Amino acid sequence: MSPVSLSPQQQLKERILDQVLAFLLEGDWQQIEMGNIARQCGISQAELNECFPTLQSITSAVNSRLTQNFIQHLDLSSRESLRLTWLDSLESPRFRAIVHLFIDASQQKSVAWRLANVGWSQFTNHVASHLGYQAVNQDLPWLLGKSMLKFINQRSRSSSTLKSIDT
Questions:
Q1: SS3 letters for the chain?
Q2: Residues 6 or more apart from 64 whose CB is under 8 A from it?
Q3: Core vs surface per residue 52-81: b (16+ CB within 10 A) or e
Q4: What is the pLDDT of residues 108-164, one digit of tens each?
Q5: pTM over 0.70
Q6: Conformation bin of residue 27: beta by default, left when phi > 0, alpha when psi is -120 to 50
Q7: Which of 78-86's residues contact partners 24+ apart within 8 Å by CB, and which partners?
Q8: Tens-digit pLDDT profile for residues 61-114
Q9: Cβ(112)–Cβ(101) under 8 Å?
């Protein structure tokens, strides 16, 4: 059986979603506007509107992709497996970027904030359905805290390295 090829319209939609996801994961959230998305994809606003008539339609599609990408890193067979796979997954640049999005975007009202909020809700509902609300109320806050500490430590090491290079 040969692989199914995407129509040109579907290929364009995928390219648009890839671009919005790149904006999110690079922390370039202010770029998530229809004009910027069209410009970055090298298409007209009309072409963008044919694929996604509203910013909400783009963000809904991106959110599903983002949540699935995040969940695929995790083993939800037990609370312990969740904790271990989360901590191991912090080595993955994409997983780390999504955690950054959840943490950083929560501090500002923006498209990224809405995406992170919806994505986090989808994720916590998924965890609750597999592991119960105890995992959501105890393990996830602990994991976010551990992630933040790891990010802070990495920044501290990077700053120290840069200072030693400068001297």
A1: CCCCCCCHHHHHHHHHHHHHHHHHHCCCHHHCCHHHHHHHHCCCHHHHHHHCCCHHHHHHHHHHHHHHHHHCCCCCCCHHHHHHHHHHHCCCHHHHHHHHHHHHHHHCCCHHHHHHHHHHHHHHHHHHHHHCHHHHHHHHHHHHHHHHHHHHHHHHHHHHHHHHHHC
A2: none
A3: beebeebbebbbeebbebbeeebeeeebee
A4: 667 777 778 888 888 999 999 999 999 999 999 999 999 999 988 887 776 655 455
A5: yes
A6: left
A7: 78/131, 79/131, 79/134, 79/135, 79/139, 82/127, 82/131, 82/135, 82/139, 82/143, 83/139, 83/142, 83/143, 86/143, 86/147
A8: 888 888 888 999 999 999 999 999 999 999 998 899 889 888 877 666 677 777
A9: yes
Q: How far apart are CA 155 and CA 144, in angstroms?
A: 16
Q: Residue count of the chain, please give it.
A: 167
The torsion angles phi and psi of 69, rounded to 5 degrees, stand at -65, -40
Query: Cβ distance 128 to 135 under 8 Å?
Result: yes
- Report residue 155 as tokens: 């920044």
Half-sphere exposure of 57 (CA within 13 A, CB side): 10
| Amino acid letter, residue 139 | D
